[in-house]
Amino acid sequence: MELITIIYLVLMFIALYMFSFFTILTIKNRKELFSYPKAKREYFVSVLIPAYNEEQSIRETIEHIMALEYPKVKLEVIAINDGSTDKTEEIIKKLMNKYANLKLLDKKNSGKANSLNEGIKVAQGELIAVVDSDSFPSKDSLKKLIGYFDDKEMGAVTSYVNVRNKDQNFFGKLQSLEYVLLGWSRKLLDFVGSVYVTNGPLSVYRKEYVIKVGGFNPKSVTEDIDITWNLLCHSYKTAMCLDARVSTIAPTTFKKWFKQRTRWGVGGLQAISKYRSMFFKKGMFGMFILPFVSLSIIISLITFIFSSYLVLKGILTQSLVTGYSIISDVSILHFQNINLYPSVIIFYMLVLFSLSIAYYHYILYKVGYEEKLTVKRFFNLVFYMILYLAFYPVVWLNSIYKFTRKDFGWYTK
Predict the structure, then answer these.
(1) β-pair partners for 158
(2) What is the dotted CATH code of the domain comprising 33-289?
(3) I want to staple 87 with a disulfide (CB 3.0 to 4.6 A). Which of 55, 267, 319, 371 is the partner?
(4) Angular region, 83: left φ>0, alpha ψ -120 to 50, beta rest
(5) Global pTM value
């Protein structure tokens, strides 16, 4: 059997296996996807909002938090001004006159992780809610997250994020599809105890456990990934509530998107490197999460390299044939060489693609993103699957390059 055929079959097997894995999880847990435990008591919650030059969004973020359906006597809000040079501090101080439970922590710029650690030092809450300064929690989001902490082993719970500015341009629309699918897959992993990212827009942590594991890591470019893996490494639980919603502002240009996703990639590689000693050790973290994340990156890169090789080989071969035909003055196109009967591999690829489209549409319908699959929405899905996802390995290649060079000074939080 040719090497190319073997690679095809291996990649196809992995794709079908992962598709089946998530499909089975969906079918098995379909009645529990949007459920959440009701809290047996009221927890005192400290909401931390790290902010650096966020004058465009900080007011609305704070107002959304103040509108949460949660007892105000059980809620304190701490806005952490991380050395902003714009009007962020001024806006927060004005809002303090309006909201009695709003506090300001002013500090020199030292990054988001350090800001959160400083906020934890003064926070009075048993639970810590972290909200990015460009994110906007729904009114009932917090109370839907709190009930998970009735489980004494629960360390962190995260929310479902959607893109606030998805209608700004086509790029925003594609990211909104991505966020929906990310949130859905994260919830499915919740059913096997494997939520490995607690997102920045809205996540809640048990303060005691965060302090025990050393707090947020200032050396990580993605402190949300690191703290989640740290908690899992110490055998604390993590969870995700698909019905607790928060919207966030996504990048609207390719340059900003590429920089953000590279940061995510570098952060993921930092986490894998930091916790590599836990591979295949006892527990879901070592037995599933680490291998799953690592294998996903590897498969993505292999698929990209393999596909690029085939495309370049096809172009080069066709160029040589065309050049030879022109020089020899013979026909370029020979109809007898055209194969109208698809191979078994192509057939399975088409089947997998069709099933994926159907499954993605089901997800979008269930989360309320769309009610019916129009021609325009079908085009968006196809574009997302073929081009948007196909470009992601380039992000991973850039992330690997930055990581191996230990080039972490190019980003700002």
Answers:
(1) 203, 240
(2) 3.90.550.10
(3) 55
(4) left
(5) 0.88
**Helix H or strand E segment including 246:** strand 237-248
Domains of the chain by residue range: 33-289
Print burial letters for 203-224: b (CB count within 10 Å at least 16), e (below 16): bbbbbebbeebebbbeebbbbb
In DSSP terms, 302 is beta-bridged to: none
Helix extents (H) in 99-169: 112-122, 141-146
- Going by their DSSP bridges, the two strands 45-51 and 237-248 should be labelled as unpaired
Place of tokens 């325009």: 376
The rounded percent of the chain whose pLDDT value lies above 90 is 62
Q: Is 45 helix (H, G, I), strand (E, B) or coil?
A: strand
The pLDDT of residue 322: 67
The two tokens of residue 304 are 């990209």
The residue with tokens 């109208």 is: 340
With CA atoms as reference, report the closest residue to 161 among 133, 189, 141: 141
Spatial separation of the C-alpha atoms in residues 80 and 356, rounded to whole Å? 43
- Using pLDDT thresholds of 50, 70 and 90, give the confidence band for residue 314: confident
| CA 381, 382, 388, 389 torsion-angle sign | positive
